[in-house]
Every structure is written in C-alpha cells, then in structure tokens.
C-alpha cells in the first residue's frame, strides 16, 4: 500500500521528534554524572517497547518503523545504561 506524501511527512516528523526527545535527558545525565531522577522501571519498559516495535516493523516489512525504533532504542538504551552505570558508582 502506498503512503501519501502528507502521511510520509507526518511520519518523518514524528520519528525525528521521538528520536530527539531523548537527547536532553542523555546530555543532562552525562554532564551531571547522575541519573538518580530517572525511573529505572520506566526505561526498562521503554526499551522493551521499542524492541517490540522493531520486531513488529520486521514482521510487516516496514523499514521506517524499524529504523526509527532502532534509533529510539539506542537513545533510550543509552539512558538506561547510564542509569545503571552511575547508580553502581554512587
């Protein structure tokens, strides 16, 4: 099924916003070397959710779903990794 140009544009904007939404959190944690305000449970669920979206994208062969969720998985995974790293130090 073909996607209209308007739908493709909206999807692209949504993907870019979702991906970049993690950047401020990552920068804050990295600068402060403190992730105590981050909810571990929330990011575990978030990472699991993006993993499921990637699996779904593979099942329906939708590369935009796969690519955008891989990027989101990497960003949310970075937050989760820093949460574990900085908690062990403290």
Automatic annotation (TrEMBL):
Subcellular localization: Membrane
Spans traversing the lipid bilayer: 6-26, 38-56, 62-82
GO MF, one annotated term: sugar transmembrane transporter activity
UniProt-listed Pfam families: PQ-loop
Alphabetic keyword roster: Membrane, Transmembrane, Transmembrane helix
Membrane-topology descriptor: Multi-pass membrane protein
NCBIfam families, A to Z: SemiSWEET_2
Name this polypeptide is given: MtN3 and saliva related transmembrane protein
Organism: Caulobacter segnis (strain ATCC 21756 / DSM 7131 / JCM 7823 / NBRC 15250 / LMG 17158 / TK0059) (Mycoplana segnis)
């Amino acid at each position: 099924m073909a996607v209209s140009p308007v739908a493709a544009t909206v999807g692209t904007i949504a993907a870019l916003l979702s991906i970049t939404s993690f950047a401020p959190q990552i920068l804050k944690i990295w600068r402060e070397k403190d992730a105590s305000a981050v909810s571990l449970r929330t990011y575990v669920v978030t990472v699991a959710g993006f993993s499921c979206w990637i699996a779904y994208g593979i099942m329906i062969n939708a590369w935009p779903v796969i690519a955008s969720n891989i990027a989101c998985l990497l960003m949310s995974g970075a937050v989760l990794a820093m949460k574990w790293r900085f908690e062990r130090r403290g």
